[in-house]
Amino acid sequence: MGTAERKGIREWDSGSKEDMDDSGTPFFSIPAHSNGWSLSENILTAVENTGEERSVVVTASHGEGRNEVAVSQEAGVITWEYAFSIDTDSMSVPATGGTQRVNVSSLKRKLVNGKDSGETETVGFSVGWHSGDNFNSIDRSGIPEYVVFDVGRNTGNERTEYDMFTQEESGNTILFTCSQERGPAGFIVCGSNGYIERIEI
Predict the structure, then answer these.
(1) pLDDT of amino acid 4
(2) How much is the pLDDT for 116?
(3) pLDDT at 22
(4) Of these four, 27, 85, 86, 97, which has the most CB atoms within 10 Å of its CB?
(5) What CA–CA distance (Å, rounded) separates 106 from 68?
(6) What is the mean pLDDT of each run of 10 residues along the chain (201 residues)?
(7) In what order do the strands lie in the sheet with 125-132?
(8) HEC letters along the chain
(9) SS3 for 119-132, per residue?
């Protein structure tokens, strides 16, 4: 900040006159409790802003003169960093079938001015068939923490299904593979009388 200057001629009631020169350094001040601002002599300092836009009025006083100026600071820049993962990306079950619980972590982390604020929020996701055979069922009642894949008995050939996890907001995806062994070969058991006794599958 600079200096104040006031020059001219002062005229008294008696009619006498004198030169006036009030040049000098003004006194600077800001209101008490100006959050985020500090003033040391003629140096105004703003700390990092992690909230909304803010401003402060600086007053310069010198003699009978007084001037004010408003100084503003931009709001903090808030961005989000997304994290999405599952504890296993595949399952393999026998022909008789089986289940698999898949635990999911779906979060977003708040960054203020590019720095981790320590604040996180849970983000929803969806999961469903993507490609391949379509034979498993998915219990989604545990979302957003987990899902359960349920595979029934296989009486045919080996099969593979690909399911896709998709995170909301970010669109991040994870491919999950579900494989099942082929079913047993069937055969017919005949009794001694030549009639079919039972069929094994």
Answers:
(1) 46
(2) 96
(3) 58
(4) 86
(5) 51
(6) 53 62 77 89 89 92 86 94 98 96 98 95 97 97 97 95 98 98 73 60 53
(7) 90-93, 173-180, 159-167, 125-132
(8) CCCECCEEEEECCCCCEEEEECCECCEEECCCCCCCEEEECCEEEECCCCCCCEEEEEEEEECCEEEEEEEEECCCCEEEEEEEEECCCEEEECCCCEEEEEEEEEEEEEEECCEEEEEEEECCEEEEEEEECCCEEEECCCCCCEEEEEECCCCCCCEEEEEEEEECCCCCEEEEEEEECCCCCCEEEECCCCCEEEEEC
(9) EEEECCEEEEEEEE
Q: Please give the structure tokens belonging to residue 75.
A: 């709001």
- Please tell me the pTM assigned to this model: 0.68
Alpha carbon 115 to its chain's center = 12
Relative to beta strand 78-86, strand 65-73 is unpaired
Instruction: Report the candidate in 80, 129, 74, 128 with the shortest Cα–Cα distance to residue 106.
Output: 80
- Residue at token pair 């001040």: 29
For residues 190 and 198, give the distance between their C-alpha atoms in angstroms, rounded to a whole number: 7
Pairing relation of β-strands 27-29 and 78-86? unpaired
Residue 144: asked if its preceding bond is cis (omega within 30°), the reply is yes
